[in-house]
Amino acid sequence: MTPKRLPLIVAIIVALLARPARSQQVKSSNSNQTLSLDNGQIAVTVNTTTGGITATADGKPFLNNLGEGQLTATLADHPVALGPAKSIEIQRGDGSIDRIVLTPNVPFLFLQRTLRNRADKPAIIDRLTPVFLTLPTATPLASLRVLGCDGLTPADQNRASYTFLAAADPQTRAGVVAGWITNDRASGIVLSQPGDHGELVLQGRSDYGRLRLDPGASADGEIFAIGQFADALDGLEAYADAIARYHHVKLMPIPSGYCTWYSRPHGGAADEKSLEALATFAHDKLAPFGFNLVQIDDKWQVANRDYTTHKPNGPYPSGMKPTADMLKSLGLTPGIWFIPFGWDPKSPVFKDHADYFVHHADGSLYEVKWAGTCLDMTHPGAREVLRQTVSRITHDWGYQYLKIDGLWTGMATQILYPNPAVRDDKLGDAVFHDPNKTNIEAFRDGLRLVRQAAGDDVFIDGCNVAQNMRTLGASFGLVDAMRVGRDIGASWDKILPSMTMATRLYFFHHRVWHNDPDCLMLREPLTIDQARAWGSWITISGQLNLVSEWLPGLPEDRLDIVKRSMPNTNLCGRPIDLFDRNDPRIWHLTAGTGENRRDIIGLFNWDPKNPAEISIPLAKLGLPSAGGQQSLIAFDYWKNEFLPPITGDLKATVPPASCRVLALRPVSDHPQVLSTSRHITQGIIDLSDERWDPATRTLSGTSKVVGNDTYELRIVLPGNATIVTAEIAPEDKQAGVTIEIRDAGPRARIILHSSANHDVRWRLTSSTPGA
User: Which of 46, 119, 690, 730 is 20 to 30 A from 648 via CA?
Assistant: First the structure.
């Protein structure tokens, strides 16, 4: 059954149609009976006589609410961080306002309610469902797939997800993306279920827990977005872009390095001696490849949930500052773990200050499993303790990277780890010092305090949304990275859950924040194929890469995975089959344009027992000319071999628990670089300025070569052409760089060697095919 209509309802009928983006301003018009908005992509009309609300997307039906009688509505400018928006404001009988908002060049319709209390006593709001969306589709619901935080299901099943939902046809990827742009006071939930007539019904719910509105007071509700896309992957990425735009996100460069937690035998927080040994090794062997961070994890602190100082008889008896100074002296960023909002009330800093903590209604302290007792981020005294702690760690000790764990303690809710499904977490049962603050407001105030105390130059990694998924939307705009994966381990069954969660949320990466899937694991019992697969997935997805292994003791073939996965590309890979399966197997990473465009396809078999036969039409990959009959050339990175040309479908066999990483380029009538040896992305981070000069039959480019690391260019020449000469720039030769032709072609291999990191300019001349 279709759910009963709620008091504030906006019914939106969405056809799964393609909508090309056009640069337009929002236009508005007003007649005696209708109000209209048009941003060149979506046009909305409200009939004030009937109450009907209609809309089109590129002239095709998009919204059709037949209305329930006369209403009062006005046109208004509605400037928000998304741009110079315009809105239709619908006045409700209780004094509240519904807004339908369009903004230029953003492919979403936005909905927002402003609440108003006209009563003579305070109003307490637990939850509100201000949005009701009906999405008819020609595709049977059982064939559509709905993606949320808790996975992928057929659209004919009831679903609920934190923050967002997307529904798409797996065959075409056409679909709808809906979600909350803001979670400032409320935690946003999106629900879906089948309707009475084959349509998909979506609802947008705001969970406040306890929002207090005094008599005469008003409060802006959260902003909800819905859009339709020819490719729902485009829609998910546009949704993340809209969130980033609203919150003025400016991402810091993504680091690559080491976390002590899982490292054996020096796990936990490690210690002064072992950390210096590891840092020296990393400086000598890995920093040239992009390694630049060492992060100390749990167990450095004076007590289990007391971060005011170090443990005098613990792993860092000299204190935390000397170790930070040592790391900086080696050119590495020092990082440290702590829980900002979960503390031990018996700590000396809280003597006689039980009021600094959140309470239950019976007066008892609000304590949560594992993370401690919840510090009240609405209490000035508690805030000062946290401010001093963060300032001490960052400014006095010198740590420039914070891994802040147990985030849900700042909301004073229950842990839901590791299941990401929507469930009761007692939101609203906490008693804060400021009764006018909701749980989400208190949490966001706490994150802002961490940022203010640390400074804008400190990288903040939130950890982690799996503990309570409300921290997903509630952290928008306030952290540089977010742990989206569960705790990992050096086994295939521990890797898979982290991969799954990080894949579902892939589109937030490099837009809202940098996704952190937890650590790169390499040691046995992982096989070398499994270690390469995990390293390749982290690299191609682009997510945070912190290895947690005792690096000086790693075998060379596993240490090589660290070298080939760093530095981070600062790009976001895309899971092509996201709507086909819960654990997508096909990832695409692209960068550059023209001769410098690189396309990497990662094929992953997550099954530990059976080989995977993977087949996908080239047109579905979005590669240059893949929609026609043009062939592609390919190089398999880990097999270190050229593959036969590919036409029509990409087909590959992938052994159990392993991967294949392919560089792909269209077949050309001139020589071109297909792959390099430096990095798993085969040219994306190390190759630039590739150019072909037909007059001189010269191929040239610039390669970032790591000192004492053999660098290989893998080049494909047309027909039976070969490389005739290979040269480097005079200044490179003077610096001691050498070049040699290992294989002249037509599948050529050219070797560069330098004793130091160097940007090498090279030139290759080729013979004429058939000559």
Answer: 690
